[in-house]
């Protein structure tokens, strides 16, 4: 997604001294009041100077937020190159036609489409790959004014393709409302069911009813930690009880006195049109880590009396269960760090005696999908990918040749039809929607995603390895102009994530060309805590070992200096959400390594994370302050607890969305106040707030491009790039 073929030659020099930068910090809003609160955890006292900011409804806090947002806006708009950079980014992001998130029911394909120049994705369908495209839902038409927007959160079609249930929410809040649409007529039915954020909807074979996830009602006295927790699964019949009130609850924590369903974020039920069974999932954090699974016959599902039979608990290491006829297929990491696939009868599930269909190998089994003809398995080895077709008994296995090297994403099947569709992409090649036909034994481009106008032969990607503090080799992916000189002159952004076993797979980012055109480099660190090398790689960057993730990131950045690509004065760190833990480490462990820190909606005060709406579901990944080991791990990864007065910190921009349901905005508020009070460098510490945004899900193209332009122009200013230096004040 990179149009321009020429890359500007950049000569970098620090045009702005730290003294001039200091004037920006000094001219900002008054320093936030310090009101210390001391907590003692297992003998360790921790002082929190800005606890009061956790009350986001406090008028004083709201006023301070507004002053910070206004100040940041004024600073950023004073940067000469910012507006032109935003226009370039937006042109790159809106120049192509994008389709994705495909679902296949018979010959009918449902998907999301982002048209050239559009701001938000729409829901569409077509009959067959070459069929005419029909738009079903356009969230842009739901907005009441220009200050607010709606987004499509999720969708699920019935097995016959007649109906589609979908969720929309306002302002990036992810507070979805479930609706149902008649595909043939385009008519909206009467359903409007709230509290369906991230709902997993599964249609029954009658194509008139479905199971869906719904969160409990909250009141004024509901603790924040319980507002986004213990969602249950209900049964809804189209046309009955349109607001969902009175729908039968069939599964969830506390639903049945005879069934011990563990606490967690949400539950859902999975079905297959060729199976008489249903799988129920108690998912602690709506992720692909080990969860609790149950099975029952569909005709025996009757509210709280449903005879659910447990398949697996988290200690069994099962991450996915799928149905085919009267058998269950499971992906498990127990005794297999690279995973394996097992099969067993649904009527008598017994993991200890399950058949091994796909044994553990040298590659990590990323995912599998059950079509009518075979099991399709995607695999990885670090940053390389492969796919194979396996018979249901595991006796036959054949590799599927890929047309080019890239990451395999989103395998799409209909269990009643042969073959598989999948997304293939790389760092420098835009996504293609491929289809494998077992009759021809070939994977071909469907043409559903047209070629990008912006791919550039001037840009290349290659992988290197950084060496972490303990000798661990950490893969890094480097995207830059082809043949870039290792002369230490290049503005470089290092990014990464390193949590939940989530891998940083190759992905084509259209806006990156705008940074590369400034002579820049973008580096992705595949740190421990991710899933690039399986479960062991994940666990070695989790809880008490989370320090490995932070140190791997620092080693990745140091590698770029040692290899001659850049210098500290041209180095920026950027991540988001759980990646905020990594940003905190980059800020506090080695403050002199980076010139700029860009921390987006980041987890910063991990000791207080449990108290907010999305905190309890994350305990399995990060730990809990209720245990000493949990506290030790959380304390080590808490950037907020390790900001020290009198330290020359880098320039920092913290960003948040006012409607963020995943990481409360107060993390970024507290970090802004704390770092600004502590730093002696004179470098600016800014807080950017999007009042029509949340965690990033559901943000429009213009919101993404604006944020990116803000962050990149801020970084280029601080790195001394000509064209981004404000006039001296």
Automatic annotation (TrEMBL):
GO term, biological process aspect, one: proteolysis
Domain Peptidase S9A N-terminal per the UniProt entry, residue ranges: 29-441
GO cellular component: cytosol
Leading EC class: hydrolase
SUPFAM superfamilies xrefs: alpha/beta-Hydrolases (SSF53474), Peptidase/esterase 'gauge' domain (SSF50993)
UniProt-recorded Gene Ontology molecular function terms: oligopeptidase activity; serine-type endopeptidase activity
The protein's name in its UniProt record: prolyl oligopeptidase
Organism: Trinickia fusca
